[in-house]
Amino acid sequence: MENSKEISALVKLLDDPDPEIYEHIEKRLLEYGSEVVHFLENAWEQSLDSLLQERIENIVHKIQFSSVKEDLNLWYQSGAFDLLQGALVVNRYQYPDLDEQKIILQIEEIKREIWMGLQYEMSSIEKIKLINHIFYNVYGFSGNTKNHHDPQNSYINQVLESKKGNQISLAIIYSTIAQKLDIPVYGVNLPQHFILGYIDESKREEHEFGVLFYINAFNKGAIFGKHDVDQFLRQLNLDPLPGFYAPCSNVEIIRRIIRNLISAYENLGSKEKVEELKELQDILTNTDL
Question: Domain named Protein SirB1 N-terminal: which ranges (predicted)?
C-alpha cells in the first residue's frame, strides 16, 4: 500500500499529549478512511497505554460509522430494493466486522429446506404452514418475550444465532425467505406490532390492498384476517388508516428497526448510540420511498 509509511508514522504519533497535534493526526487518519483500520487495530493490540487505546477505538468507530452512513445512503438513494441488505447495513452499526455472506448462507439454508417441501398445487395457506413448520419447529425461531426491549433483538446476525428476535427482525428474515421462494409475503406497518401480509395483486377486488391474510412472525407465524386488525386498532383507539393494512416499503421497515434501536438504547441510557442512530434515521427522510 503506497500510503502505508505515512499511515504508520501517523499511528505512532497518536499518543502525543498535545491536543492540537492529536486533532491534526486524527483528521488525517479519518481522511484515509477504512484503509487505516488494520494499522490502528494492530497498534491497539501492541499497546498497554489506555489513552492510546481509547483514541484508537474512537477513530476506528468514527471510520466504521461513516462507512455505515455512506452505505445506508447508497442503499436508500438506489431505490432500497433489497430489504435484507438494508438490515445488514444497520447491523454493521453494532457489528462492523459482520460476515454478511455467513448470514446470507444461513438464510439460504432455511430457504432450501422449505423449497424441498413445496409442491405446485399447494394453496397459499398451505405454503405458509410449511414455512411456519420449518422456521419455528425445525429451526426453533421464536419471539423474545423475556427480553423484548434488548437491542440485540434488532440485529439479524444475533437473531440467527440465538433464534430469538422481535416482531420486525423475525418478519424481515421470514419475508426474505418467502420472497426468495416466490411466495408474496411483505411487511405491514401496524402500530405497536409489525406484521406480514400475503399479497395477491390479482385479488384486489375481493381483498382490500390484495392482502389475502396476515401473518404474525412473532407468534409462530399465526394467520389472521382483516377483522383482527380492525379489532386491534379499536383497542388502541386508532383510526383504520390504509397504511395499517397495506404492504409498506423497505425504507419504512428499516426506519422502524432504527426507531426500535433508538428506544432500546434510550432505555439503557446509551446517549451516544441514540444520537448516532438518529443520524442514520435522518438519512432515510424522504417519504417517497
Answer: 103-259
